[in-house]
Amino acid sequence: MSTLEIRDLHVAVGDKEILRGVNLTVSAGETHAIMGPNGSGKSTLAYAIAGHPKYTITSGAVLLDGEDMLAMSVDERARAGLFLAMQYPVEVPGVSVSNFLRSAVTAVRGEAPKLREFAKDLKNGMDALSIDPAFAQRNTNEGFSGGEKKRHEILQLELLKPKIAVLDETDSGLDVDALRVVSEGINRFRDTGDTGVLLITHYTRILRYVKPDFVHVFAGGRIVEEGGPELADKLEDEGYESYVKASA
Amino acid sequence: MGLETMPVSKLHAESSYDPADFPVPTGREEEWRFTPLSRLKGLHNGTAAPTGNVVVEVDAAPEVTVETVGRDDSRIGAAYVPSDRVSAQAYASFEKATVITVPREVVASRPTVINVRGLGEGAGHGATYGHIVVRVEPMAQAVLVLDHTGGAVYADNVEFAVGEGATLKVVSLQDWADGAVHVSHHHAQLGKDATFRSFVVTLGGDLVRLSPSVSYTAPGGDADLTGLYFVDAGQHLEHRLWVDHGVPNCRSNVTYKGALQGDGAHAVWIGDVIIRAEAEGTDTYELNRNLLLTDGARADSVPNLEILTGEVAGAGHASASGRLDDEHIFYLQARGIPYDEARRLVVHGFFAQLLEKIEVEEIRERVLSAVEAELAR
C-alpha cells in the first residue's frame, strides 16, 4: 500500500510565495480531486512535487512511502513511483515517441523491456487510447493536437504504472470524445488496484467519468475545504467565488 | 526596379591562383575576423614551411579511376579559383594532386574513400598542402568519403566538377587528432541538372576552417549542403558556406547544426548566398542551429542572403543559437530518465534529422558513436 504525504508544504517562485502550507495524504486505492480557480496554486503543487526547477520549496515535506521526495532529483522521484501528467506536455524535437517511451520504461523498471513485449504493450496501449500507431515514429508531442498530447500522457501513465499519479488538468482542452477516452485510461489505471490518483482540475466535468473519493478545494495556495464527491456538486452549482473572497 | 546589379557584399569578389594577390590577413578583414590567426601556424602569411607529412590514400570503387598528377595537369584549377590567401597558398604550394574520375554514365558500385591522414603529432612538424580534383562526368553517379584523421597542419583545395545530369554525394569527415590545423576549400561546380549532396562532419582538431562553396554553370543544378559539428573546450571549428546562384532555376539548401561544450569552444558559421540578376527561379534556403551545452562556449552565426533579381522561387535563411532546453530535460526526467540520458536523447534529437541524411551506413554509425563519445566526456 503506497502513500503520498504532503506536509505543510510552502513553495515559492522567485520571491513570491505560491503555496502556503498544503497538507494532503493520498493512499493507494484512493482518488483525490483538487479543485480550484485559476491562479490558486494547483499546478504549482503538481510541479513542485515532481521537482520542476522553477519552484523552490521553502518549507514542508513530501514523502512517498516514508521516503523524502524533496531530497531526490526529478528522475529519482519518477523512478520511486511518482508520475505527473502535465497540463502542457513538452515537445521534444528529434526524439521519437517509441524511443522516448522505451527509454522511460527502461529507466523506471530498471531494465530494458524485451523488444517484442514492449512493442505489444505499446500497441495495446495506443489502441486502448485510440492513438494512431503511426504516432510511435513521430517526434514526442511535436505537432500533436491538445487532445493527442493528453492521450499520450495517459499512455505513459499506463506503461509506467506509477504508485501515485498526479494528473494536472488532464481534462483541459479536451472535447467530449477525447475526455471519455482519457477518462477510461485513468480508470483502467485505477482498476489495477494498488495506485493512488491526485486529479487536479478546474472543472467538475471529468469527475463524472473519474469518480473521486475525496474532493479538496484549493484557494490562495492552500486547501480551504475538504469533503466527499458531493463537494464537487456544490462547486458545480456555486462556483469558487466564496472561496476566492475568503482567501483574499 | 531598384535592384542593384552588383552585389553589395565584397566577399568572394577576389579570386586568384597567386597568394601574392591577397594581402596577408590581419584579422580585421570580414572574412578573417572570427579566425584566430595565431593558431594557423603560419598558413596565412607564407611562413608555414611545407615540411609536414600527410598521406592521401584512395580506396576507389572499381569503376572509378584514380590518378596522382603533377601541378601542370590541365584538370587542376578548372572548376575552382582560390578566393582567399590560404586557399591560394595551398594552390601554389602542393606538389602532387589526386584526380578522381567517375566516367560518363557510370554508376559507382560502392563509395570511394579518400583517406587523408596526418602523420604528425598534433600540429606535427611543418605544414602540408594538398589538392584533390573529383570529376563526375555526365550522367554518372558516385558516393565519395573524404576522411581526415591524424595530426597535421594542412591546407588544401578540393574541386568537385559535377557534369550534366550527374550525381555526386560527398561525406567529408574532419576527425583530426587534438592540435591539428586544417584550412580547406571545397568547391562544387554543377553542370546542367547536376545533383550535389555534401555532408560535412567536423569533430576533431585545434582549428578547422572549412569553406564549402557551390556554383552553377547551367540551369537545373541542385545542391544540398548539410553539416554537423561538435566543438569541445578550446576548439575552433569554422564553416564558411558560399552558394553563388548565377544561372536560372537552380536550387540550394544549406543545413548546419552544431553542439558546443567546454571553455573556449568556438563555432563559426557563415552562410553566404547570392542570387544574381540572371538567376531567376532560384530556390534557396539556409539554416544554422547551435546548441550550447555548457557555459564558456561561443557560437557565431552569420547568414547573408543577397538577392539581385525579383524573380525567385524561394529564398530564406534562419539562424539560432541556444542552450539545452530545461523543459525538454525536465519532461524526460519526469518520466524517470536520468539527467545524462535525457541530455543524450535531446542532443541526439537535435542531430537526428541530419544523421538520417548520411547514406553510407558505416559512416553514419561512426558519426553516431563519435557524438556519443563527445557526450560522455
UniProtKB/TrEMBL annotation, chain A:
Top-level lineage group: Bacteria
**Entry keywords, A to Z:** ATP-binding, Nucleotide-binding
Q: Which residues form the signal peptide?
A: none
Asked whether the UniProt record includes Ribosomal protein among its keywords, one would answer no
**Residue span, ABC transporter domain:** 4-245
Point out the coiled-coil segments of this chain: none
Protein family per UniProt: Belongs to the ABC transporter superfamily. Ycf16 family.
- Record protein name field: Fe-S cluster assembly ATPase SufC
Organism for this UniProt entry:
Microtetraspora fusca
Q: Which gene encodes it?
A: sufC
TrEMBL record, chain B:
The organism's lineage is: Bacteria, Bacillati, Actinomycetota, Actinomycetes, Streptosporangiales
The record's SUPFAM superfamilies line, in alphabetical order, gives: Stabilizer of iron transporter SufD
Q: What is this protein called?
A: Fe-S cluster assembly protein SufD
Q: Which residues form the SUF system FeS cluster assembly SufBD core domain?
A: 126-350
Q: Which InterPro entries match?
A: Fe-S_cluster_assembly_SufBD, SUF_FeS_clus_asmbl_SufBD_core, SUF_FeS_clus_asmbl_SufBD_sf, SUF_FeS_clus_asmbl_SufD
Which residue intervals make up region (Disordered)? 1-24
Identify its protein family: Belongs to the iron-sulfur cluster assembly SufBD family.
Q: Which Pfam families match?
A: SUFBD_core (PF01458)
